[in-house]
C-alpha cells in the first residue's frame, strides 16, 4: 500500500472540502488516515487467497460445527463508510477434516479488510472455506448495519441487512439448514 500517496490524497480531500490543512488539529491527520487505511484495508497487501489457517484430522465424525456472532468491521466500496456486524459460520466436515476455530475469525477479518459489499463478503467466506475444507456443506449468515444508510442518504438508523449463503447439505437437507438457522437465531443479538 502506498501510504505517501494516501497522505497526499487526504490532504487534497481536506483542502477540497474547504478545510485549512495547516490548522493544528489537521496537521497529522493525513498521516493518521494513511495508517488507518493500511489497517482497515490490510487484506489488500496480502495474497489473494486466505493463508492463515490450520486443518486438523479428527478420528470421529465431528458433525455440525458452528462459530456464532463473529464480529466484523468493513468498509462499503460505494461510499467508503463502515458497515459492521456479525458473521455466523457453520459447516459439516467431510473426510473428518476440521479447521482451527480461531481461524474462522481470522478468515472473517481477511474478507472484511478491503472495500466491500456485504454480499461479496458473504460469498467470499464460503469460497475460502470450500477451497480449504471441501466440506459436505457450508452455511454463512451475515447481519450488518451500513453507515452509508444511517448517517447520510436515506438516514435510517434502524436497518439491519441480512445476507446468507448455503452450499451442499445446507441446500439439500432442510433439517440441517433448520438446525443452523435455529442455532444462529438463539445466539442472535443486535449488530
Ligand atoms: N447491495 C449492496 N448495496 C450496498 C452495500 N453497501 C452500500 N450499498 C448501496 O450502494 C448503493 C449505491 O447507490 P448509488 O445510487 O450509486 O449511490 P448514492 O447516490 O450515494 O445512493 P444513496 O445511498 O441511495 O444516496 C446504495 O443503494 C447503497 O445503499 C452492500 O453491501 N450491498
Ligand atoms: Zn455505502
TrEMBL record:
Q: What general EC class does the enzyme of this chain belong to? A: hydrolase
One example GO MF annotation: GTP cyclohydrolase I activity
UniProt-listed Enzyme Commission number(s): 3.5.4.16
The pathway this protein participates in, as annotated, is:
Cofactor biosynthesis; 7,8-dihydroneopterin triphosphate biosynthesis; 7,8-dihydroneopterin triphosphate from GTP: step 1/1
Q: Does the keyword Hydrolase apply?
A: yes
Q: Which reaction does it catalyse?
A: GTP + H2O = 7,8-dihydroneopterin 3'-triphosphate + formate + H(+)
Family annotation (InterPro entries): GTP-CH-I_C/QueF, GTP-CH-I_N, GTP_CycHdrlase_I, GTP_CycHdrlase_I_dom
Keywords noted in UniProt: GTP-binding, Hydrolase, Metal-binding, Nucleotide-binding, One-carbon metabolism, Zinc
Q: Does the keyword Cell wall biogenesis/degradation apply?
A: no
Family note: Belongs to the GTP cyclohydrolase I family.
Whom does it interact with, and what assembly results?
Homopolymer.
Protein name (record): GTP cyclohydrolase 1
Organism of origin: Lacticaseibacillus baoqingensis
Q: Which gene encodes it?
A: folE
Amino acid at each position: 500500500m502506498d501510504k505517501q500517496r494516501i497522505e497526499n490524497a487526504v490532504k487534497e480531500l481536506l483542502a477540497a472540502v474547504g478545510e485549512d490543512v495547516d490548522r493544528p488539529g489537521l496537521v497529522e491527520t493525513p498521516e493518521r488516515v494513511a495508517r488507518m487505511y493500511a489497517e482497515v484495508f490490510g487484506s489488500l497487501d496480502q495474497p489473494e487467497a486466505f493463508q492463515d489457517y490450520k486443518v486438523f484430522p479428527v478420528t470421529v465424525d465431528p458433525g455440525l460445527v458452528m462459530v456464532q456472532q463473529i464480529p466484523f468491521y468493513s468498509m462499503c466500496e460505494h461510499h467508503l463508510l463502515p458497515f459492521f456486524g456479525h458473521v455466523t459460520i457453520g459447516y459439516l466436515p467431510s473426510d473428518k477434516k476440521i479447521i482451527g476455530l480461531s481461524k474462522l475469525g481470522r478468515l472473517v477479518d481477511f474478507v472484511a479488510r478491503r472495500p466491500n459489499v456485504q454480499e461479496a463478503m458473504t460469498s467470499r467466506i464460503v469460497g475460502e472455506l470450500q477451497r480449504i475444507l471441501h466440506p459436505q456443506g457450508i452455511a454463512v449468515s451475515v447481519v450488518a448495519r451500513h453507515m452509508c444508510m444511517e448517517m447520510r442518504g436515506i438516514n435510517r438508523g434502524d436497518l439491519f441487512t441480512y445476507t446468507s449463503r448455503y452450499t451442499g447439505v445446507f441446500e439439500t437437507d432442510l433439517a440441517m439448514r433448520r438446525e443452523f438457522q435455529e442455532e444462529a437465531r438463539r445466539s442472535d443479538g443486535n449488530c
